[in-house]
Design a protein that fits this description.
This protein is of the alpha/beta class and 395 residues long. It folds into 3 domains: 3-148, Rossmann fold; 159-264, no CATH class; 268-392, 2-Layer Sandwich (Nucleotidyltransferase, domain 5). It has helices at 10-22, 69-79, 89-96, 130-141, 150-153, 159-166, 176-184, 197-204, 223-229, 250-256, 280-294, 314-323, 332-341, 350-356, 362-369; strands spanning 3-7, 27-30, 62-64, 82-86, 108-112, 118-123, 144-146, 169-171, 190-194, 213-216, 237-241, 260-264, 268-274, 301-307, 327-330, 373-382, 385-392. The strands form 3 sheets. A 7-stranded mixed beta sheet has the order 3-2-1-4-5-6-7, sandwiched between helices. Helix 11 (280-294) crosses helix 12 (314-323) and helix 13 crosses helix 15 (362-369). The longest helix has 15 residues, at 280-294.
Length: 395
């Protein structure tokens, strides 16, 4: 987390320097009254002005802002993931209020009093990580972490925190507030349905949280059939952990009623093979057809993967850029090792082996790119493109 500390008094500055000695890369911002132009500091103190931001020294690194604190706070909120404000809470509330945009993108803001007695989580407690930062600061300073989010106060599992911990996405995000409210009510039955046992285990592994009932979809029952029957969907609020879209049926009805959120792991990797000079639109079309077959949305993917011999293919690179997905380049040595050592049964092509030295690209490339992969879509061919999809089940 990229962090900044803002102080406005000498004691606040001292406390910020203490935090800087424990938090690697913490930037300190001070008003101009502390700048070398106004105080007789020696160069040995390592004091740097805003104009020398690239310069670092062995001593404390401090920047002196020009203009008002409110204006500077707007800049910091756009640049940093977390801001530690060593000043009165009221000042912080007034200065950050003009710059708030969305709880999904606003940075974590924690207020620390000048005596270092309290670390108060003020903004973006779960999604932004302010609650976690508050606890970290309290540990460093020997202070008391002040956290007021209801789920934390009552020891309940907050879905935004769960998603953040596991790197999952929430859909629709607009129903998150209802989901967390349901958790806080003892009169509302909330149930989590996990498509895979690994997802249930990930949630169970989060210690120290009171969790709702965790249930597992039966392996031989498709999500579509599960949604259509609605036999087990009698809880007041449902949480679905799956990369697939609910489709028609009771799940979709509950989503429209605002009584369902989906936690999407977003952990799919598409392995791509293609003929030389493949056009970008064909790669995108192949990916779309694979998504349709799997019944998953674009957000379910976290990367594309291909062999090193395909690294310069503009069509594959262009598709990755359009989808804003990283393209992982897998060496043919790694692919050969995957083909030889894996227990997975891969589609092997004699022609491909003669051409590039390995018997396949899309399946082993996707598996090699995953830390703990499960091949959920074996090799498919679409007009010069081969594609396979792997679900990465690493936490």
């Amino acid at each position: 987390m990229k962090l900044a500390a803002v102080a406005v008094t000498p004691s606040g500055r001292k406390l910020a320097r203490n935090l800087q000695s424990h938090l690697d890369g913490l930037d300190i911002y001070l008003p101009p009254k502390f700048s070398p132009e106004n105080e007789n500091y020696s160069a040995a103190e390592g004091v740097k002005a805003d104009s020398s931001r690239e310069s670092r020294s062995a001593g404390p690194v401090e920047y002196f802002y020009r203009g008002s604190l409110g204006e500077k706070m707007g800049e910091l909120m756009a640049e940093y993931e977390g801001i530690i404000c060593i000043m009165a809470l009221g000042i912080v509330v007034r200065t950050v209020s003009s710059w708030l945009e969305d709880k999904r993108t606003d940075p974590a803001v924690v207020v620390v009093d000048e005596a270092g007695r309290y670390a108060i989580s003020v903004l973006s407690g779960h999604v932004g990580g302010a609650n976690r930062l508050s606890r970290r600061l309290s540990s460093i300073l020997g202070a008391e972490a002040v956290i007021t989010t209801a789920t934390d106060v009552r020891g309940r599992l907050a879905f935004d925190l769960l998603a953040e911990e596991l790197g999952w996405q929430i859909k629709p995000f607009e129903s998150l507030k209802k989901a967390n409210s349901a958790l806080l009510s003892d009169d509302i039955k909330t149930e989590i349905w996990c498509e895979r046992s690994e997802y249930r285990d990930f949630i169970t592994a989060l210690d120290g949280e009171k969790k709702p009932e965790l249930s597992l979809l039966e392996e031989d029952v498709s999500l579509k059939d599960f949604s259509s029957s609605g036999e087990n969907l009698h809880s007041d609020f449902t949480v679905l952990v799956s990369n697939r879209y609910p489709g028609e049926g009771r799940l979709q009805e509950k989503r429209e009623e605002g009584r369902l959120i989906q936690l999407m792991p977003g952990n799919l990797i598409a392995g791509i093979g293609a003929r030389r000079g493949i056009e970008k639109f064909r790669v995108l079309q192949a990916l779309k057809m694979a998504r349709q077959e799997l019944e998953v949305e674009p957000e379910a993917f976290k990367a594309l993967a291909t062999a090193d011999i395909k690294a310069d293919e503009e069509g594959i690179k262009g598709a990755a850029e359009d989808l804003e997905l990283p393209l992982q380049i897998i060496s043919r040595e790694s692919i050969a090792r995957e083909l030889e050592e894996s227990e997975e049964i891969y589609s092997i092509s004699k022609f491909v082996k003669e051409k590039i030295g390995v018997g396949g690209v899309c399946e082993p490339a996707a598996m090699a790119a995953a830390e703990k992969g499960d091949l959920i879509l074996s090799k498919r061919s679409f007009q010069g493109v081969t594609i396979a999809v792997v679900e990465d089940l690493s936490m």
